[in-house]
Design goal:
The strands form 3 sheets. Strands 4-3-5-6 form a 4-stranded parallel β-sheet, sandwiched between helices. Strands 8-7-9-10 form a 4-stranded parallel β-sheet. It has 2 domains: 127 residues, Glutathione S-transferase Yfyf (Class Pi), Chain A, domain 2, CATH 1.20.1050; 113 residues, Rossmann fold. It is globular. The chain has 13 helices and 10 strands. Helix 5 packs antiparallel against helix 6. Strand 9, helix 12 and strand 10 form a beta-alpha-beta unit. By secondary structure, it is an alpha/beta fold.
Length: 262
């Protein structure tokens, strides 16, 4: 599906490379399929490069720049030639768009390629709203939901209103805002491994906020946050559901909630 520019000329559809992310690939592939459905609905041609790997964030955050650099070189090759690179994750999109060029400060040629990729990389809902101006959501979700703003998406990429704008178009959905929607859930990638007691206290507080909101379902744009919260809820015997926002926007209610048995 082509688009029309301001001069009235017909433009070819955007070619988007979907950065699936490790967690989506390993634990929740339905998020990737939902992302493809949304992007195609917005008129994009979507491809999923088979050669893609991790974004390199775990190594980067742990100070292992050599491993992060090695991973980054593969990403540059895998996503070369796409108009845009889109990820259903604020943390992975943040790594590619904000930190990848730092890994090649001693190599001008590779840094130029990294900057070019960084400029073309966006988180999914931000891309739909801010770049494409897309709002043609025909989904339905009957129930009260709360939305958790992930740290990377919110603080690094400025994602706050975009998911709420799209969710407002979902028929039957009622959004109850959390009192501390912007407070970290305690996951933080390797943070939850290095500081488990602090992480557990943080997610305990987050779950109490969710329960106080009276929502039956919690949505977010980062699977790491969702898995962390769902894990805590499951250990406490809570029946609250956790889903990626893309699944609801794409009207994909066929999968069990995150953390629930299939």
């Amino acid at each position: 599906m082509s688009t029309i520019d301001a001069s009235g000329s017909r433009k070819p559809p955007m070619k988007v490379g979907l950065f699936v992310t490790c967690l989506v690939d390993m634990f929740r592939p339905s998020v990737g399929f939902a992302a493809i459905k949304l992007l195609e609905s917005a008129g994009c041609i979507v491809e999923v490069p088979e050669a893609q790997t991790c974004c390199g964030q775990p190594a980067y955050n742990s100070g292992d720049r050599a491993s992060a650099r090695s991973v980054a070189r593969g990403i540059l090759d895998a996503f070369d030639g796409y108009d845009y690179v889109v990820a259903p994750s604020g943390s992975c999109a943040g790594m590619l768009s904000h930190h990848l060029p730092e890994l090649f400060e001693d190599d001008p040629a590779l840094q130029h390629r990294a900057r070019h990729l960084a400029a073309r990389t966006h988180e999914l809902v931000s891309f739909l709203v801010d770049i494409l101006g897309f709002g043609d959501i025909s989904a339905q979700f009957d129930g009260v939901v709360a939305y958790h703003d992930s740290c990377s998406g919110l603080r690094e990429l400025g994602i706050k209103s975009q998911p709420r704008s799209l969710l407002s178009k979902v028929q039957g959905l009622e959004l109850n805002e959390l009192q501390e929607a912007e407070t970290c859930c305690g996951f933080g990638g390797t943070f939850c491994v290095k500081y488990p007691d602090i992480s557990n206290a943080m997610v305990e507080k987050k779950l109490a906020d969710i329960e106080g909101a009276g929502a039956a379902t919690v949505l977010a744009g980062d699977l790491g946050c969702l898995m962390n919260m769902a894990g805590k809820a499951g250990r406490k015997g809570s029946r609250i559901d956790f889903r990626h926002v893309a699944e609801v926007l794409a009207d994909d209610g066929s999968k069990p909630a995150i953390g629930r048995a299939r």
